[in-house]
């Protein structure tokens, strides 16, 4: 075959330099299909009907008539592949030396859809083709988006870690006072203030260690810190996953127990905690035994939603437990 100017082109050269070409006779017989075009329309070699249509609005959908008009009138050709509705082919055509119609097609703005639909790569385009430049830009864009996505994920993780650290007691790993305030405020706010949230009672336990000062005074602050760490481990073992354990200062701890209303269950829990903390008494401490006093209040939906009021009530219960001889729990 030869181009319009008479230069001969082999079929292999045609496929190599025009991977989106279509060569056909005036009767519609397809003589050659470029390899890239064949990926989008694998059976195009069998003929145009049912595979290509004229995509120009207001014109006949007959692809052969549209091709002949574009080739002989040197106009622009717009076709659509039937099994890929969103992919539009645009191009021009000429008659080669044998009188056949030779089309060179492209994707225009539907390039990204064609790449996705047929899984095209840079091997499917001529290196000098503008599509190659667009593909490089597309790959670069994907790379940048991937990096940005990873960066955003890392930033979100770092922010979450920073927030968690700001709400965590460094010595024990429990929530600190700020973390407790947030958890308690949320527990009270979500009860009775929004119709979609079911009201859930809350038990608040204020715990203070007995004879902790003697540990610090006689054995040193390192021994005191070790005792606090081990007390925190006891509390972690005793609370449920939905509960909150916090160290609010010195040797004071607070437990927030969601849905807990049983006084007997709270007394049993208190006894287990007191018993476990007694076992933590350092052997060097011979004059007294470390223990714990607990003040407990039960909050029911509809009562005050003031966290400070609830903490004050728990503190009063703790004071009563201390006044009654320590190493016990008082429930208000």
From TrEMBL:
InterPro entries: Diguanylate_Cyclase (IPR050469), GGDEF_dom (IPR000160), Nucleotide_cyclase (IPR029787), Rev_trsase/Diguanyl_cyclase (IPR043128). Pfam families: GGDEF (PF00990). SUPFAM superfamilies: Nucleotide cyclase (SSF55073). Transmembrane segments: none annotated. CDD domains: GGDEF (cd01949). Residues 200-332 form the GGDEF domain. Its EC number is 2.7.7.65. GO terms for cellular component: plasma membrane. This is diguanylate cyclase. It comes from Paracoccus gahaiensis.
């Amino acid at each position: 075959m030869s181009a319009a100017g008479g230069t001969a082109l082999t079929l292999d050269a045609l496929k190599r330099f025009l991977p989106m070409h279509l060569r056909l006779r005036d009767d519609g017989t397809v003589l050659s299909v470029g390899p890239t075009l064949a990926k989008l329309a694998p059976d195009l070699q069998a003929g145009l009907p049912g595979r290509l249509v004229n995509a120009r609005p207001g014109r006949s959908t007959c692809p052969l008539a549209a091709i002949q008009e574009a080739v002989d009138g040197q106009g622009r050709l717009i076709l659509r592949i039937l099994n890929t509705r969103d992919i539009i082919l645009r191009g021009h055509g000429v008659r080669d030396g044998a009188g056949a119609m030779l089309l060179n097609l492209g994707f225009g703005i539907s390039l990204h859809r064609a790449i996705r639909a047929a899984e095209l790569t840079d091997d499917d385009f001529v290196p000098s083709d503008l599509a190659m430049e667009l593909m490089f830009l597309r790959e670069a864009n994907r790379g940048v988006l991937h990096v940005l996505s990873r960066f955003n994920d890392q930033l979100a993780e770092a922010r979450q870690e920073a927030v968690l650290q700001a709400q965590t007691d460094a010595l024990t790993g429990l929530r600190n006072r700020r973390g407790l305030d947030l958890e308690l405020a949320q527990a009270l706010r979500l009860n009775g203030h929004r119709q979609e949230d079911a009201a859930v009672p809350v038990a608040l336990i204020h715990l203070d260690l007995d004879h902790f000062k003697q540990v610090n005074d006689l054995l040193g602050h390192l021994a005191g810190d070790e005792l606090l760490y081990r007390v925190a481990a006891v509390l972690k073992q005793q609370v449920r996953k939905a509960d909150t354990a916090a160290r609010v200062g010195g040797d004071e701890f607070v437990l927030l127990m969601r849905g807990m209303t049983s006084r007997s269950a709270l007394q049993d829990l208190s006894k287990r905690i007191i018993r476990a903390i007694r076992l933590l008494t350092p052997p060097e401490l011979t004059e007294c035994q470390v223990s714990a006093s607990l003040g407990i209040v039960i909050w029911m939906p509809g009562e005050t939603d003031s966290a400070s009021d609830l903490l004050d009530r728990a503190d009063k219960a703790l004071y009563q437990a201390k006044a009654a001889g320590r190493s016990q729990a008082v429930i208000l």
